[in-house]
């Protein structure tokens, strides 16, 4: 049994189509179909139901799937033991992150990581949408938010403090809030459907109702609106610190509370053993953030 054929079967189930599996494995659709046919012929069972648009496992496919996944994990673990420095990483690594974090943090560290692992392919999905990482076949999701899905396995990478900030023009026109309740009288730039911001002081946690004329589903859009003087933003320190240092934005420090600090998490789709390529990527990201501490206040 060829592990390459097994991998096509597993990826086809994840993607819901042979075409999707072929794209993920960087092979032709014809080659993927041939691999799946070879595997079914060798096993003597039909593993999938195929139509022109979709693919789903048969009952035999459902039985074989966890064993197929275990075979691939055993291969990855064997290579990880033989090459503990990660020099033998191969295949495709699928990462998702927010648009801002993907562009500002992940993308800059990937060239060195990929130079160190020349047989590895990386697919970065940078989006502000909360996607189904299991259904999309994502290997690791980088998230900055409280985690609500207990089915997922998460590794905490580092703190993610946030800052209130606004342009000097906005503060000159409307004044700077001093206390938490003062935010109720200001134009606050929120993500879509957000009605409250979370704050903390010591062990106490607070919710402050906020509203404004502008909201967006994009952190980058909120940042640009803040630069343009439309109101007060509550954004990750690593995102706004350069603009504050350059004088484009002004940090707002309240006397009675500060924005609740979140954390940067690596989220995995399964509790099974994490593949070596995923572990090495997360380690590289942690090293990058240690050497480039963008979450620290200057």
Question: Could you characterize the architecture of this molecule?
Answer:
- Belongs to the LysR transcriptional regulatory family.
- This is LysR family transcriptional regulator.
- Residues 1-58 form the HTH lysR-type domain.
- GO terms for molecular function: DNA-binding transcription factor activity; sequence-specific DNA binding.
- Keywords: DNA-binding, Transcription, Transcription regulation.
- The protein is α/β, with parallel strands linked by helices and 298 residues long.
- The chain has three domains: 3-82, Orthogonal Bundle (Arc Repressor Mutant, subunit A); 91-151 and 268-291, Periplasmic binding protein-like II (D-Maltodextrin-Binding Protein, domain 2, 3-Layer(aba) Sandwich), CATH 3.40.190; 162-260, D-Maltodextrin-Binding Protein, domain 2, CATH 3.40.190.10.
- The chain is built from nine helices and 15 strands.
- Strand 1 and strand 2 (55-57) form a beta hairpin.
- Helix 1 (3-15) crosses helix 3 (29-43) and helix 1 crosses helix 4 (59-82).
- The longest helix has 24 residues, at 59-82.
- It starts with a helix and ends in a 7-residue tail after the last helix.
- The model has no long low-confidence stretch (mean pLDDT 87).
Q: Rounded to an integer, what's the Rg over CA atoms?
A: 23 Å
Distance between the termini: 57 Å
CATH C-level of the largest domain: Alpha Beta
CATH fold-level label of the largest domain = D-Maltodextrin-Binding Protein, domain 2
Total DSSP E strands:
15
Tally of separate domains: 3
What is the number of helices? 9
Order of helices and strands: HHHEEHEHEEEEHEEEEHEHEEEH
Mean pLDDT score: 87
* Strand-residue proportion: 15-25%
Q: List segments where confidence is low: pLDDT < 50 over at least 5 consecutive residues.
A: none
Biggest β-sheet strands, sense, barrel: 5 strands, mixed
- Would you identify the CATH H-level superfamily of the largest domain? Periplasmic binding protein-like II
Oligomer: single chain
Structural class computed from helices and strand pairing: alpha/beta
Family: Belongs to the LysR transcriptional regulatory family.
GO biological process, one term: positive regulation of biosynthetic process
Keywords: DNA-binding, Transcription, Transcription regulation
Protein name: LysR family transcriptional regulator
């Amino acid at each position: 049994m060829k592990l390459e054929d097994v991998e096509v079967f597993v990826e086809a189930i994840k993607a819901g189509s042979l075409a999707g599996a072929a794209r993920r494995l960087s092979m032709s659709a014809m080659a993927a179909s041939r691999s799946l046919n070879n595997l079914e012929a060798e096993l003597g069972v039909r593993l999938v139901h195929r139509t022109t648009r979709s693919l789903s496992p048969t009952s035999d496919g459902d039985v074989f799937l966890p064993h197929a996944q275990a075979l691939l994990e055993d291969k990855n673990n064997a290579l990880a033991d033989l090459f503990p420095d990660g020099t033998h990483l191969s295949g495709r690594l699928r990462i998702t992150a927010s648009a801002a974090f993907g562009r500002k943090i992940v993308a800059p560290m990937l060239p060195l990581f990929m130079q160190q692992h020349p047989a590895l392919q990386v697919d970065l999905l940078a989006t502000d949408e909360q996607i189904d990482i299991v259904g999309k076949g994502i290997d690791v999701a980088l998230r900055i938010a409280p985690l609500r899905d207990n089915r997922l396995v998460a590794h905490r990478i580092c703190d993610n403090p946030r800052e209130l900030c606004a342009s000097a023009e906005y503060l000159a026109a409307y004044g700077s809030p001093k206390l938490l309740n003062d935010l109720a009288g200001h134009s606050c730039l929120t993500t879509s459907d957000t009605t409250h911001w979370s704050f903390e002081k010591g062990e106490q946690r607070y919710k402050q109702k906020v509203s404004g004329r502008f909201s967006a589903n994009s952190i980058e859009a909120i940042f640009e609106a803040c630069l343009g003087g439309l109101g007060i933003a509550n954004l990750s320190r690593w995102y706004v610190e350069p603009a504050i240092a350059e004088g484009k934005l002004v940090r707002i420090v309240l006397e009675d509370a500060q924005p609740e600090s979140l954390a940067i998490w690596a989220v995995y789709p399964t509790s099974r053993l994490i593949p070596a390529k995923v572990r090495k990527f997360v380690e590289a990201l942690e090293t990058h953030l240690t050497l480039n501490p963008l979450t620290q206040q200057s």
